[in-house]
């Protein structure tokens, strides 16, 4: 009987250990972040550690959920296919919540909103107006691959101006500085980081693009449609971080204005 009791005890312990291990595994949430630098939202420091507003928010959300966060680097133009292939659990990379993307994936509530803009040299005195496409005749505009700005500008400038596609925002900036493009498209909040730097002093926002439906309803975390439980956990945590004032504390580290919007 003692031997039987020992065996039962060992089996129970083994199942308990397995259950504990499973519970621990379930508490690891993998956040997909675009490998390209996107300061001040997500960028690696000199040691290779991720930092930025979006990373701080991720850590605050994970603390609320009592979950362990892991970051998975992924190229922006393949980030949705990688999510669907289960290479990570949630896109956490300044992705706009749009109806078109909702056909493929689900989203958390928004966690910030940025208008979209065109940036150019202060010395360029031409007047650009997307309501008057002819004002872009012969103009070269840089936009990031797989971005909403790229889609919008390609539609507006079709046969009028040229839209040049780049893999990263840094590549857009480099070609603008080199004079190979006249304007570059970007998220208005994000480009502030460049405009405040010494190398950005010669540039300014030329156009704030209208808030059309295709630009969506702010930026949030992207999830597989079936992961409703994770979506609800993330939404509850985002609400808690906002209600506690921690959201504002994080934001003040990087911005001197509200980025949440209405």
Structural summary, described in words:
There is one protein chain. The protein has 262 residues and is an alpha/beta fold. Helix content is 37%, strand content 24%. The strands form three sheets. A five-stranded mixed beta sheet has the order 4-1-5-12-6. Strand 2 (43-44) and strand 3 form a beta hairpin. The protein is globular, with a radius of gyration of 22 Å. Mean pLDDT is 90; it is low at 1-25.
Q: Can you lay out the helices and strands and say which pair or pack?
A:
Layout lengths: L1 H25 L1 E7 L8 E2 L5 E2 L1 H13 L2 E7 L4 H6 L5 E7 L2 H4 L3 E7 L3 E6 L18 E5 L3 H9 L5 E5 L2 H9 L5 E5 H8 L7 E6 L10 E5 L4 H17 L1 H7 L10
Parallel strand pairs: 1-4, 1-5, 8-9, 8-10
Antiparallel strand pairs: 2-3, 5-12, 6-12, 7-10, 7-11
Helix pairs in contact: 2-8, 2-9
Summary, kept brief:
This protein has helices at residues 2-26, 53-65, 79-84, 99-102, 148-156, 169-177, 188-195, 228-244, 246-252; strands at 28-34, 43-44, 50-51, 68-74, 90-96, 106-112, 116-121, 140-144, 162-166, 183-187, 203-208, 219-223. By secondary structure, the chain is of the alpha/beta class.
* Sequence of strands across the biggest β-sheet: 4-1-5-12-6
Rg, rounded, reads: 22 Å
Largest sheet entry:
5 strands, mixed
Whole-number mean pLDDT: 90
